[in-house]
Each structure stands twice: as C-alpha cells, then as structure tokens.
C-alpha cells in the first residue's frame, strides 16, 4: 500500500524526494510555506501516514486531527515547532536527523566568530559607503579561549578547527558521557565554571524548558570583559535584552548571531542597529549539502518506521512511545 507523506514546506531537496517517490509514496506539499492553518487543514482531510516537518508549526490540534498519522520526522534536530507532547499522547514517534547539518552549521559558526572578531561586516559597510576606515581593534583569535556550550557533533567540529587556529578550547555538556571526544579540549562540570574561561562563547544546545533564557544577564556577567558571543543554536536560549545591554556597554566586544528571539528580525530591531553585531538569517543548516542530508535522513526515518524497520531510537525525541506502538503500519 503506498503511503501518503506530508512535507510541511513547498519543497524538499531532490535526494529526499527521490527516496519517497521510489518507495511509491504520494507526497504532499504546502502551497503557503509558512501556514500552520494549512498544515492542520491537510491533516484533517487527507489520510496522511507521516509528516516531514520543516519550520512551520505542527500543533497538537493538527496532530489529533489526523487519525492515520503514524510517524513524524523533523527535517533537522530542533523540535520547538512540533507539539511533541501531543504526538506522545497519540503514540506517534517524533524523529530528528542528527548530524545531517552539523558540518554546515559548524562552518557558519566559525565564519561568525571570525567576522565578529575582525569586524568584517562593519568594515564592509564602511567601504561601501565610500569611507576607507581601517579598524585597529579587531581581535586575533589564536591564543584566546573558546567556550562551547553543548559538545555534540557541531561543537566537536568547531573545536577541531578552533584548535587548529591556535585557540584553547573549553566545553560544557551535561549529556556528554565517557572520555572527551576531541583531544586537548578541557571539559567543565558546570556552565558557571565554563563562562569565566570563555573569551569567545559559542552555543550549540537545543531549545527546551531548561535552556530558554539560559544565557541571562547574570551569566553574561561571568564572561571575561570584551568576550564574543556566537549563537547558531536558537535565539531564545539568550536573554536578548541582556545581550544588547552588554554589547552597548562594552562588556562584550561583539556577537555573531544566526538565530534571534523573534524571526524574521522585526523592523527597528536593536540588534540590527548595533555595529558590533554580525547577523545572518538562520541559515546555518541551509547549504545544499545540509538540506540534502536532512531531507534524506527524514525520508529514511519515516519510511523505515512505516516499513516496520525502526530507525535508531537515539534519533527519537520521545522513545517511550516505541515500546508502546504496536499498531500495524503495513
């Protein structure tokens, strides 16, 4: 029996789409790529077996409206747009695609770090405005200390390159088990121990109840004066008004941000007005290579589950449902 798959976007990378079509799936897309109401409408009227979720909200009402829905896979790793509690209550596993975009996000992290340290965006703007303004206070990263909050695949890749640049690398990750996976990295037992050792701080953590507002004014004050903050995780993990205050006062030298608390960035944003902030529009995982990796990973997740070949339980954010799910899916 062919399966019906809903992709909550207007498209999917060709490699992922080919996998679904080769399996004989009927693939549905959104007409409006940013409409939670359209997602709910499709699920309420179509016999959808699986959802590949992009950035559009997948609400509890949408999940409950579709009695045929059996599995959800995020096209990526962050699931704040998915009502995981509603999926769990319905016995529906929610998978992610860990590592698929790790290299692209790590590379953007390093790019933001270098751009913030050397004031690249500001100097580019000066030149385009006809001014030959040579900044004399850019920072050399070699010899400085990089602090990584979260030390999964992205953090580990950033650490390897940072060490090659001559940086001393420190990390904190309460989920890390066993020996340090990157030689020469100093692991810390708490965030409060890491922050004073971080001339550059880079965030690589999911957004959840424990991490929302994690980097608040009190913790920002623990960073060395003149530190740089880089965020390619989720904007909400930083207390944004506190970050802006620290950037304005000079407590922080600069910030490089791929994610903000409100996206798209609203008109008149205080962040956009600061000359010591480098901003990108949440594109860390948006290279063609990363999009193909996430699309193929999500396609394999849903097809594997629907065929009775359970994907890696470590990629399931609500694994408790796997032992409960006894429904026939063929």
UniProtKB/TrEMBL annotation:
Domain of life: Bacteria
Residues spanning the membrane: none
Record-stated family: Belongs to the D-isomer specific 2-hydroxyacid dehydrogenase family.
InterPro entries (UniProt xref): D-2-hydroxyacid_DH, D-isomer_2_OHA_DH_cat_dom, D-isomer_DH_CS, D-isomer_DH_NAD-bd, NAD(P)-bd_dom_sf
Record-linked CDD domains: PGDH_4
Name under which the protein is recorded: Hydroxyacid dehydrogenase
Domain D-isomer specific 2-hydroxyacid dehydrogenase NAD-binding: 110-284
Keyword Transmembrane: no
Domain (D-isomer specific 2-hydroxyacid dehydrogenase catalytic): residue spans on this chain: 11-311
Pfam families: 2-Hacid_dh, 2-Hacid_dh_C
Keyword Chloroplast attached: no
Organism classification: Bacteria, Pseudomonadati, Pseudomonadota, Betaproteobacteria, Burkholderiales
Keywords: NAD, Oxidoreductase
GO MF, one annotated term: NAD binding
Organism: Comamonas antarctica
């Amino acid at each position: 029996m062919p399966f019906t798959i809903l992709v909550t976007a207007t498209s999917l990378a060709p490699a992922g789409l080919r996998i679904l079509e080769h399996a004989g799936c009927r693939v549905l897309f959104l007409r409006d790529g940013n409409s939670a109401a359209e997602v709910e409408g499709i699920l309420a009227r179509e016999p959808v077996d699986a959802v590949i979720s992009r950035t559009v909200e997948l609400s509890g009402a949408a999940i409950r409206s579709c009695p045929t829905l059996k599995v959800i896979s995020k096209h990526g790793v962050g699931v704040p747009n998915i009502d995981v509690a509603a999926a769990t209550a319905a016995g529906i596993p929610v998978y992610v695609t860990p590592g698929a975009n790790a290299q692209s996000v790590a590379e953007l992290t390093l790019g933001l770090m270098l751009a913030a340290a050397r004031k690249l965006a500001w100097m580019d703007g000066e030149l385009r405005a006809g001014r030959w303004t040579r900044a004399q206070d850019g920072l050399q990263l070699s010899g400085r200390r990089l602090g990584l909050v979260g030390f999964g695949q992205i953090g580990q890749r950033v650490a390897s390159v940072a060490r090659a640049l001559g940086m001393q690398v420190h990390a904190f990750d309460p989920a890390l088990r066993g020996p340090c996976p990157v030689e020469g990295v100093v692991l810390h037992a708490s965030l409060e121990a890491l922050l004073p050792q971080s001339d550059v701080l880079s965030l690589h953590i999911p957004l959840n109840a424990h991490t929302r507002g994690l980097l608040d004014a009190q913790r920002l004050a623990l960073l060395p004066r003149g530190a740089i903050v880089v965020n390619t995780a989720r904007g909400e993990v930083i207390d944004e008004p506190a970050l802006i205050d620290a950037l304005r006062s000079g407590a922080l030298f600069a910030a490089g941000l791929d994610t903000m608390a409100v996206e798209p960035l609203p008109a008149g944003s205080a962040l956009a007005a600061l000359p010591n902030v480098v901003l990108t529009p949440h594109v860390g995982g948006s290279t063609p290579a990363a999009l193909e990796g996430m699309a193929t990973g999500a396609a394999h997740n849903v097809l594997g589950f629907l065929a009775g070949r359970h994907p890696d339980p470590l990629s399931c954010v609500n694994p408790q449902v796997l032992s409960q799910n006894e429904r026939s899916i063929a």
